[in-house]
# Entry
Amino acid sequence: MTIEWWLTYLLTTSILSLSPGSGAINTMSTGISHGYRGAVASISGLQVGLSLHIMLVGIGLGALFSQSLLAFEILKWAGAAYLVWLGIQQWRSAGAIDLNAVAKAMPRRRLFKRAVLVNLTNPKSIVFLAALFPQFILPHQPQAMQYLVLGVTTVVVDIIVMIGYATLATRISAWIKGPHQMKLLNRIFGGLFIAVGALLASARRIA
# Structure
């Protein structure tokens, strides 16, 4: 893989990572409710889910998965249901502003696991990666190393972008002065989770 080809992929994956999705919503929601450390735990979980998708694409299962309507539908509805459930939980959350108390109520291990599921149950991610990676793989060069470079680049870029969202979230949390504001934010992010879940449910497999 040439440096020019890698830079093209770097630009592509940066633009895609900046696009708000379930990962960004989860990171910001966690950052506001559980502070920066909670957001870091969430970001770590997101990267585990993303890395598993990259591994599946690398060993060829991504292409097989993208061609299986049944597998796509099962994962799609599981992911949509999970996001809607998260949205309902967020919507119903009390307007707590004691971040330490909230963090104790939901340990960082649980935030990590929740984020893993957010990414892992998103079939659009693995289908998209299965379609994107081959566009940047040069057939006359070792494919394993190229997949590794693309995978590491994808994860590193996503970490940087998610840290940006987490930093923004902690800045927003500093403006919260009372439970009513926190409750409003909970409902905003709850609504966003539900909206993303609905969009995922309406997604169709690329033919």
